[in-house]
Amino acid sequence: MGTAVEAAPYRTTGGRYPRDGTRARDGGGLANALGWFSIGLGLAQVVSPDGVARFVGLQDNSRTRSLMRAIGVRELTAGVGILSRERPTGWVWARVAGDVMDLALLGSALGNDDNERDRTVAAAAAVLGVTALDVVCGGRLAGQGKASAADAVGEDRVLGAQAPSGVHVRKSITVNRPPEEVYAFWRDFQNLPRFMSHLESVEVLDDRRSRWTARAPAGRTVSWEAETTDDQPNERIAWRSLPDAGVTNSGSVRFARAPGRRGTEVVVDLRYEPPAGTLGAVVAKLFGEEPSQQINGDLRRLKQVMETGEVVHSDASIHKGPHPAQPDATRAGALSTEAR
Fold first, then answer.
1. Count of domains observed in the chain
2. DSSP 161
3. Average pLDDT of span 183-207
């Protein structure tokens, strides 16, 4: 499952957990950047193929425009593939293959006197730079996948054959409370909606089964029944959805004593199938409802509830739109009256 994170209280990590609490050594952040780059470039090539062709020094004609659109579709496909996977190793290497094809195209274009050689040379240099980033990212993701393979196999054995394969997220946070207290709070599943913002309710059906109702993107709700597959007091809870669930999912949460008497290291491992498949996962990410973002926020709220007894809301969550960082007018007036 990974090691405890030696980090500031609110820091969370994804994928395999580096010992220094950062993601600097894995390819997750770089892969996201390359994914969005692919989508941006692909859109430009599909929407304005003539403009992109002129920008890279190619002669603008119907053949070039068709080629630009085809490359744009390839870029869009790669971008969606990268952004919809927790560890998109294959999609990043697909980008490398596409980079090689682009370099070959630009190289052949240099032999055509009708093209602008200076622009084409500059474009080739830019593609070489992006290719280097793609290769670095692919190597990091491949190494990360090998390092965590044993953990993933062990987790799947516990979760069972129904463990979904669509989206896989791992996050952790340190809570300044003993493992026994954090475990007991989490084990009472009716407490979960207190810090899991997407959950509306959890109804306990018996000692193993419970019914979950959650908010989905676009204002929808989904419900499913889940069963507890592993329960080790003060250490670990694992679950999986039952057949015919609205959202096929499984996961676990570990509670480990943090070094230096800093409380409990809470590690969440979640696998689920987006209701609308891969495209649904990408759309959810675009609207800020991607599971990695949700779990980050959920763990921060868990920390607040355990350490302060409530979720602390920022001024921005109370007031909509731009506003000065000060109490609202009603409270400010009441304070002014009391001061008199």
1. 2
2. T
3. 93
pLDDT digits 0-9 by tens, 238-252: 999 998 766 688 999
- Would you state the structure tokens that stand for residue 18, as one six-digit string? 């580096």
Q: State which amino acid sits at residue 44.
A: A
End-to-end CA distance of the chain, in Å?
A: 59
The answer to whether 134 touches 75, Cβ cutoff 8 Å, is no
Residues 129 and 172 in one domain: no
Q: Quick one: average pLDDT of 210-235?
A: 87
Q: Report pLDDT digits (tens) over 74-111.
A: 999 999 989 887 678 888 988 999 999 999 889 888 88
Is residue 179 domain-shared with residue 307, that is, in the same domain? yes
| pLDDT recorded at residue 110 | 85
Assign residue 212 the CATH number of its domain: 3.30.530.20
Q: Which two tokens stand for residue 141?
A: 């993701």
Q: What angle do CA 230, 269, 264 make, to 5 degrees?
A: 80
Distance CA 237, CA 159 (A): 11
Residue 287 identity: F
Q: Is residue 261 part of a domain?
A: yes
Check whether 283 has a pLDDT greater than 90: no
Angle between helices 117-159 and 28-47 (to 10 degrees): 130
pLDDT category at 310 given cuts 50, 70, 90 is confident
User: Could you tell me the two tokens for 177?
Assistant: 């409370």
Question: Residue 210 sits in which domain range?
Answer: 160-311
Radius of gyration of the chain (CA): 25
CA distances to 87, 105, 183, 252, 268 from 6, rounded to whole Å, are: 23, 48, 20, 21, 16
